[in-house]
Amino acid sequence: MHDGHDHTHGEATETDKSKLLLRFTLDHNTQHVAEAKALAEKLETESRAEAAALLRESITLYEAGNEKIQAALHKL
């Protein structure tokens, strides 16, 4: 350990790899949420209210999942 950290330079630790994967997953999911929101708006303009409502419910679940992923990331 030196300078306040204890990893080997040039090699990612398993924790580093986990953090990268969680960040990637979070970014990926965030993109899906944005796409789903746009699609829900489109469905609403097409008078497809039931489909839009179901999609918005799924967005809520995605966002809740993203919060859990963010919390896991902070624990690392």
How are the SSEs placed, and which strands pair?
Layout: H1 14-45, H2 49-75
Helix pairs in contact: 1-2
Low-confidence stretches are none
| Computed CA radius of gyration, to the nearest angstrom | 18 Å
The total count of strands amounts to 0
Terminal residue distance: 18 Å
Largest sheet: none
Helix coverage percent of residues? over 70%
- The percentage of residues in β strands lies in under 5%
Shape: elongated
Helix/strand structural class? mainly alpha
Tell me, rounded to a whole number, the average pLDDT. Answer: 90
Molecular structure report:
- The chain is mainly α and 76 residues long.
- It has one domain (14-75).
- Helix content is 78%, strand content 0%.
- It has two helices and no strands.
- The protein is elongated.
- The mean pLDDT is 90.
Short description:
The chain is mainly α and 76 residues long.
Give descriptors for this structure.
76 residues, mainly alpha, elongated
